[in-house]
Design a protein that fits this description.
Distance between the termini: 126 Å
Number of helices: 2
Helix content: over 70%
Structural class: mainly alpha
Number of strands: 0
Strand content: under 5%
Shape: rod-shaped
Order of helices and strands: HH
Oligomer: single chain
């Protein structure tokens, strides 16, 4: 390498090849990380979707338990629940009527 022009050519060529390898390596690593990130996000989305669907199914099952159906044995206790609910409503109505009557008496006694 006695000629500086030839030496500069080979140094430039080595620099270009080294930079090319480093850029290629960096780009490969970036694409690999991007692929991993994409795969993780797809998995997270899949899990989220499954959780939402499972929660919706549970909510649907819970809401359907209160309804009566002659076709399924799982709903056999529903008529008793309806009767209990109706009894509670009747009791509350009686209490409201009693309170109204008491309030009426209080207003009458206060005005006298």
């Amino acid at each position: 390498m006695s000629n500086p022009l030839i030496q500069a050519f080979f140094v430039g060529r080595a620099v270009a090849e080294t930079l090319n390898q480093q850029v290629e390596s960096a780009l490969t690593n970036f694409m690999s990380e991007l692929g991993k990130f994409d795969a993780e996000q797809r998995e997270n989305l899949r899990q989220f979707t499954e959780q939402v669907i499972e929660r919706a199914r549970r909510e649907e099952e819970l809401s359907m338990q209160g309804r009566t159906s002659g076709y399924s044995s799982t709903y056999s206790s529903a008529p008793n629940q309806e009767q209990d609910l109706q009894a509670m409503i009747d009791e509350l109505r009686a209490e409201v009527a009693e309170l109204r009557a008491e309030l009426q008496r209080y207003r009458i006694n206060r005005s006298v």
